[in-house]
Amino acid sequence: MATVLYEKDADRAQIANRKVAILGYGSQGHAHALNLKESGIDVRVGLREGSSSATKATEAGLRVLSLGDACAEADLIMMLLPDTEQADVYAAYVAPHLQAGDALFFAHGFNVRFNLISAPAEVDVAMVAPKGPGHLVRRTYVEGGGVPCLIAVGQDATGHAGDLALAYADAIGGARAGVIQTTFAEETETDLFGEQVVLCGGLTSLVTAGFETLCEAGYQPEVAYFECLHELKLIVDLMYEEGIGGMRYSISDTAEYGDLSRGDRIINADTRAEMKNILAEIQSGAFASEWMAESRSGRGRFLAMEADGQNHPIEKVGAELRSMMPWISQGRQSVQATSGGQG
After folding, report:
1. Which of the four, 89, 126, 222, 238, has the lowest number of CB atoms within 10 Å?
2. Among the options 30, 32, 97, 108, which is catalytic?
């Protein structure tokens, strides 16, 4: 079992005198910067020239600098830019300013795990990865709580990289909820696998296939939408709150019997074999290479697949039904108002 660390285990003195640069002011960036500031840490936000996020950060009371100036001032740099942009930003703005004893932090291990960024040997490299979106990291901190974090050390030049990562996690509120030690490889590989196989790729494909099956059998698209997508939130919320067992306890006996007797006909041996294939692609670096090449070539395939998804009948039906339920979007609008862009 993993060891869970809390506020009592963190030494805030490890970060108290650091000059921290948060690169990016998107979902995670705004949360990290504001939480650090309110924890008494000397923080500045580094943004591209002309960034639309500059006004939001300034109005929130944060110092906003160019990427280069922020890195020149700081001795702890947190990379909170999109994965596909980090290597270029690192080469242009971060690397020229790194000095012995500095720390380079990440909230996701992608660029370190796949050797897209390699810091000098005399620089600490660590990760602090909240297990929740930025708006939740911010909201729970303000409420006096926090979101659990993963921390990892990729390079311990000073001998204190782990202590510094825990102190950072504490300063953004993570140690209030619990901090688990991991590695860059474990965090990256499990995160990508979860996104591709379960949380995003697997789930959206399952929902879409269920919707199509019912429509092709002659059922009304609106009813198919409710059964295969809309009610998903109820089940996910039950699992989130009580686990799979708690969800099964809360649903009807008929639904539970259908779950137990039919589920493994959908997620069968062939599906599990394909899961292993996808995991192997992640572990080998094949997915990372494919995604970076796609991004650098203009994202033609990505944009085409995205457009296909947006034009699927489930989106049209869903938009019409959600317009009948305006309360659904209220929470989303609140999140968009506070999160900002990618910076």
Report:
1. 222
2. 108
Residue in 340, 341, 330, 342 with CA at minimum distance from that of residue 60: 340
Question: Residues 300-326: pLDDT tens digits?
Answer: 999 999 999 999 999 999 999 999 998
Give Cα separations from 307 to 139, 300, 303 (angstroms): 33, 11, 6
Tens digit of pLDDT for each residue in 39-85? 999 999 999 999 999 999 999 999 999 999 999 999 999 999 999 99
Instruction: Tell me, yes or no, if the pTM score tops 0.90.
Output: yes
The CA–CA distances, whole Å, from 39 to 12, 138, 162, 170 equal 10, 12, 19, 9
Would strands 103-106 and 149-155 be described as parallel, antiparallel, or unpaired? unpaired
Q: Coil, strand, or helix at residue 221?
A: helix
Distance, CA of 214 to CA of 219 (rounded, Å)? 6
Whether 108 is catalytic? yes
Q: Is 101 left (phi over 0), alpha (psi -120 to 50) or beta?
A: left
In sequence order, the 6+-apart residues with CB closer than 8 A to the CB of 21 are 43, 44, 45, 46, 65, 70, 71, 73, 74, 76, 77, 78
